[in-house]
C-alpha cells in the first residue's frame, strides 16, 4: 500500500538564521513521501534566498515543494495560507526554529495509519534554549494527564492554552478541515491562541492518539512573536483573554454539538480557576478573593489553590518560591 503523503506547513517570518538547521531536519526524515508548504510571511531578511539555496536538495530527496510569499505579516495569515495550499492526507505545523528527529514523520504517520479513529496524534518533546540546542531544559513537556488516548475534549476544555507545542501534533486532513470553520483558524479579538484551536476543533469529533517518545525539540528564544503577545505581562489582558476563551469555547461547543452539561461545567470551572490564579499571581487581592469564593461554591477544596490564595497577600513570599523552584530545576510554564 502506498504511503500517505505528509505535508509540512511552515510559516516563516525573518527566520533565516534558523533555516539551515530546519532544512537539515527535513532532509534527515526516514519517511519518503513528504510535501513541504513553506509560507514566507513577509520576511525582510534572507529567508527567501536561503529557501532557494536548499530547494535543489529538497527536490533531489523527492520532497514536493509549495512556496508562497505573503505581502504583509498578520496574525494567523501564514498558517491559514498553508492550510489552503497543502495536499497531504496528514500534516503538521513546523516552526522554522524548532527541531524534529529523523523518525518524527515515520512514527506519527504510522500511528495515524493504524488508528483511523484518531483525528490527530501527538508526541512528547523536550525544550531547549536557542543558544544551547544540545542541552535540554526539560526532557519532556507533555503532562502525564495529557498522555491519555481517545476522547480528550475535557482535557482541552480545562486548559487555558494547550498542553504541547504545535510541532508535537500530526493531523488527519479530513478531520481537521471538517471541524475547523471553513478550514481556517479563527483570527478574533482578543486573540484566541491559534495553537489552542488546532487541538480543540478536531477533538470535538474524534479521539486523539499519543506517542510517548521525544520526537522533537521546542526551541525557546526571547525575540519570538510570543513575547510580543498583548496577553504577556498584563493582568487586564490576561483576564480579557480568559473571558474571550470562555466565550469561544461555549460558542463552538454549541456550533459543533458538544455543548453538554458536563462540558459547559468544565468551561466555567476552568474560567474561574484561570482568573483566580492570574489574580493571585499578580497579587490582586480583591479579585483573587472574589474568584476564590466563586470557586469554593462549585469546586471541592484544593490545597494548592488555597496556598495560592494565601500567598497573594504576601508577594515577597511568591518571589522566594520562584527562586527555589528554579534552583531545584522544577519545570516552569513553557514560553516562546
What would your notes on this structure say?
- This protein has helices at 19-27, 47-60, 77-85, 104-114, 153-157, 173-179, 194-203, 235-255, 261-281, 285-298, 303-311, 315-327; strands spanning 6-12, 34-41, 64-70, 90-93, 99-100, 118-129, 132-138, 169-172, 207-220.
- With 336 residues, it is an alpha/beta fold.
- Strands 1, 2, 3, 4, 5, 6, 7, 8 and 9 form a nine-stranded mixed beta sheet that branches.
- Helix 1 runs parallel beside helix 2 (47-60) and helix 9 (261-281) packs parallel to helix 11 (303-311).
- Residues 328-336 have low confidence and may be disordered.
Distance between the termini: 40 Å
Q: What is the N-to-C succession of helices and strands?
A: EHEHEHEEHEEHEHHEHHHHH
Give a count of the beta strands, DSSP E runs of length 2 or more. Answer: 9
C-alpha geometry = globular
Q: How much strand? A: 15-25%
Number of helices: 12
Low-pLDDT windows of residues = 328-336
Mean pLDDT score, rounded? 86
Structural class: alpha/beta
Helix content: 40-55%
> How is the main sheet built?
9 strands, mixed
User: What is the radius of gyration?
Assistant: 21 Å
